[in-house]
Design a protein that fits this description.
The complex is a heterodimer of chains A (221) and B (276).
Chain A (H helix, E strand, L loop, with lengths): L5 H5 L1 H35 L5 H13 L2 H11 L9 H26 L3 H9 L4 H31 L11 H12 L3 H32 L4
Helix pairs in contact in A: 2-5, 2-8, 3-5, 4-5, 5-7, 6-7, 7-9
Chain B lengths: L7 E12 L2 E12 L3 E5 L6 H7 L8 E6 L2 E2 L2 E3 L5 E3 L2 H8 L2 E4 L11 H11 L5 H14 L15 H14 L4 E5 L7 H16 L3 E5 L3 H7 L2 E6 L2 E6 L1 H6 L4 H27 L1
Parallel strand pairs in B: 3-10, 3-11, 8-9, 9-10
Antiparallel strand pairs in B: 1-2, 1-4, 4-5, 6-7, 11-12
Helix pairs in contact in B: 3-4, 3-5, 4-5, 5-6
Classes of the chains: A mainly alpha (221), B alpha/beta (276).
Chain lengths: 221, 276
Amino acid sequence: MSLDWSLLAEYAPALAHGTLLTIVLWLGGSVLALGIGFAMALLLAAGPDFLRAPIRCYVEFFRGTPLLVQLFLAYAGGPQIGITLSAFTVGLWGLGLYGGAYFTEIFRAGFAAIPPGQLDAARSFGFSRAQSVRHVVVPQIMVLVLPPAVNMLIVILKDTAVLSILTIPELTFQVTGMTLETFAFVEPYLALAVLYWALVELTALGGRVTEARLTHRLAWG
Amino acid sequence: MEQANADILITARALTKSYGATDVLHGVDLDVRRSEVLCIIGPSGSGKSTLLRCLNFLETYQGGEVRIGGALLGYRLDSAGNRRPDSAANIARLRSGIAMVFQQFNLWPHMSVLQNVMQPLVLVQRKPPGEAEAIATSALAKVGLGGKLSSYPAQLSGGQQQRVGIARALATDPAVILFDEPTSSLDPELVGEVLTVIRQLAAEGMTMVVVTHEMGFAAQVADRVAFMDHGRIVEEGPPAVLFRDPHSDRLRQFLQTWNERSRLFRDEPAALGALS
């Protein structure tokens, strides 16, 4: 069996374009997911009681159903009830809401790890809620939530591949197109796997470096 | 509005508080007067700490009122005269003259000793960092920790941590400091250093409300002692009167138990000696 790696060179522009879009979707989805997760966890910890049930429902739904099904619901089901969104919008927000459900749990665990007395002290000295979060909670939960958060960023990165189903021309979509045109499967999919893997390893490395720095900076005792 | 007496810093009137079906405070009346040391004593679960935490609205109360310098704390009256929760900013403003020292110290573990004391000055009082550092440094020197500025709380003994807690309160230049069982989580040999600092503040005329189990301290330092039981102030007065001539059976019983226990501890070495 012979492999023809020159195919990859031929498709280099498409692959580069796909990689770029994958990174855009990943970063965009991750920012949304982090923002949603942080906000939801904050509301669960310190928000009004009536928001608790809806937030739990959100987390359970997006964690309890496959991303693919959520995307189909929004993209294919949406127009039927009068909501027509572009594939890109559905893909980006799909990743954001899906990841956000997991990040809600990650941050919730972080908030729960802060002894309430520390927040009593902040409150008694007149800190606003935002100041308590910014100066007391966040610096302490960073070290704690970093490993699971990096894990989740990796999951979101790999799940961008699911968006190819919506015909978003990200990396997996480009490579699939390539296989259909060339009938070569081994080289393109192998290259695809290696590209994802490289991105994941970079992310994990970034996580380790950040963790080492935070631990060093926040070392106490 | 009720005429505010300039010498009464905090008033509680008919204060009630419950957690669900459990009543914790049953109509407490209390005044905190300028420059006095008021000790609140009583058995565990009598509502002492809850009362203290209501005085700066760390705990919400349901009935009655707490006033700081004459202003209602925690609630505002709407146009129909109904009580509504006050804004966080208003509560923070009223609370700003009241500092608190906690049983568990509640220092922020990711900040150095100096940062712990500086933080309220910088974040809440909006002092420039240089000025805040100078105030914090002198407050720490006052509690004998001038050499620990860059240490972290976990590197200090319990007694030192509590003194940082006191310096943090002191640095805000409060009208009143509330102490919530400041020595209850300390090893016995570390209690003295904390009580010494509180005693020194009392001598300087700092207004303090101290919830404590240290009867000896209350007897020596308090201007006034309030004895609580089952969510009520059963008896209050100067320590000389309260400890020597208790009127209520409940206080008499409480003091007797305490005396017996301390006698037991005092006699213990002799008893052990007799055994050998």
